[in-house]
Design a protein that fits this description.
Blueprint (H helix, E strand, L loop, with lengths): L18 H21 L2 H18 L6 H8 L3 H41 L4 E3 L8 H4 L20 H13 L10 H13 L7 E5 L8 H6 L4 E6 L2 H13 L5 E4 L12 E7 L7 H14 E11 L8 H13 L5 H5 L3 H8 L7 E7 L5 E4 L17 E7 L3
Parallel strand pairs: 1-4, 2-3, 2-5, 3-4, 5-6
Antiparallel strand pairs: 6-9, 7-8, 7-9
Helix pairs in contact: 1-4, 3-11, 4-6, 4-9, 6-9, 10-13
């Protein structure tokens, strides 16, 4: 199967690739797509036909959990091969996108400065803020410097790397404007709360704003805010929003403790925050969400799916990133439940609702009342699967 993936949307802040850079980026993308459709599904075949029967003969029982499956599969040449290729592809991706940005970085910084000068929205950068160690101590999903690296002098590198790099990382599944998850959140929100009229909306952990701008499109009269931990990320997000004609209020803040007043927002949304956040920080963030939401306000969230919905081989496949793609908090998140996270923060756990998403290569999303039973049923091998959940703060 051959899938055509166009370049990301060419807004003013998007780094543009020259001929050779684009060829390298597309070559990496093509291999990623080939692996997704033609190689990764074979791991389950090897497990069922070779590895599991051998384990049963030796142990007298089937593997009991994903950890035993992982140890078993890592002995398989097939698994060793695809795992090595997958890690190499990830490093190639960031290198290929990074060289494109390095070439244009002075121009991108100048564009950002110009857009800031004539901005509709606002930008606040906290020069004294330290990026939390759970993000600064590891290059999350192998991206150099993670979210918080700051090269100084009005730097926007981390934002540019995320904007173009995440598009290729997700194989175009985030849509040309990297906004599929944000549009999905808005879609689900309107299905659940069709008559809700928010005045203030916060996108917590907004990265470059792909999940933020759809809220402004959906509720143009509302004040929309976005926060994240890195100054270059926020500079880029603000310039990006201005380039796209959107009035957004961005600030560099730690979601565990923000400077917003109590009961300030009508909606607080997160998109993919918790699988990249430590367990204690995740709990603190949700307590902060509870604090800044007004009574009757709504917390709505999206992230990768919890593991307990999948069989143990699928759990191992979805857990690969935790061990080999610099996603150290992936497994702890997938072992939690939405109700557990919300309940400890003060939300009524019994009122938490969930639904599930999938995506195609045109950036469209699909919702399901129940999770799919296996990653192979997903449109892209499980990578685009995810769970939405939400709840109303008690009045």
């Amino acid at each position: 199967m051959v899938v055509q993936v166009s370049e990301p949307f060419p807004h003013a802040m998007m780094p543009r690739a020259n001929h050779d850079e684009l060829a390298r980026q597309n070559a990496t993308l093509g291999i990623k797509l080939f692996m997704t459709y033609n190689v990764y599904p074979g791991d389950e075949v090897v497990y069922e036909r070779e590895a599991k029967p051998r384990f049963v003969r030796t142990k007298g029982r089937a593997p009991k959990d994903k950890n035993e499956v992982r140890e078993l599969m890592l002995q398989q040449p097939f698994t060793q091969t695809w795992s090595s290729i997958a890690r190499t592809l990830q490093e190639m991706l960031w290198y290929n996108v990074g060289e494109c940005i390095d070439r244009q970085l002075p121009e991108l910084k100048e564009k950002a400065r110009d857009l800031h000068k004539r901005a509709k929205g606002t930008l606040r950068v906290n020069e004294k803020m330290e990026v939390p160690r759970y993000l600064s101590a590891v290059d999350i999903h192998c991206a150099p410097g993670s979210y918080g690296v700051d090269l100084g002098d009005d730097d926007v590198f981390a934002g540019a790397l995320y904007d173009r790099g995440a598009y290729y990382y997700a194989k175009g599944l985030v849509g040309p404007k990297n906004d599929t998850t944000g549009r999905g959140l808005v879609f689900v929100f309107k299905q659940k709360y069709p008559n809700f009229k928010p005045k203030r909306i916060l996108d917590l952990g907004c990265a470059v704003g792909g999940s933020t701008l759809p809220w402004k499109d959906a509720y143009p009269d509302a004040e929309v805010y976005g926060i994240d931990v890195g100054a270059p990320l926020m500079r880029y997000a603000h310039a990006r929003a201005e380039a796209l004609g959107k009035k957004i209020h961005y600030s560099q803040q730690n979601g565990e403790k923000t400077d917003f007043p109590d009961d300030f927002f009508d909606i607080v949304a997160t998109a993919g925050v918790f699988h990249e956040t430590s367990h204690s920080a995740s709990r603190n963030i949700m307590k902060e969400v509870f604090r800044v939401l007004r009574p009757g306000g709504i917390s709505i969230n999206s992230d990768i799916p919890h593991q307990h919905y999948n069989n143990i081989h699928d759990q191992w496949m979805l857990d690969w990133d935790c061990h080999y793609n610099a996603e150290p908090f992936w497994a702890q998140w997938t072992s939690m439940t939405s109700k557990e996270l919300m309940g400890q923060a003060g939300f009524p756990a019994n009122k938490v609702w969930e639904c599930w998403r999938d995506r195609d290569h045109k950036g469209n999303f699909f919702l399901h009342d129940q999770p799919k039973s296996s990653p192979k049923e997903s449109n892209q091998g499980g990578i685009g699967k995810g769970v939405f959940w939400g709840v109303v703060k008690p009045a």
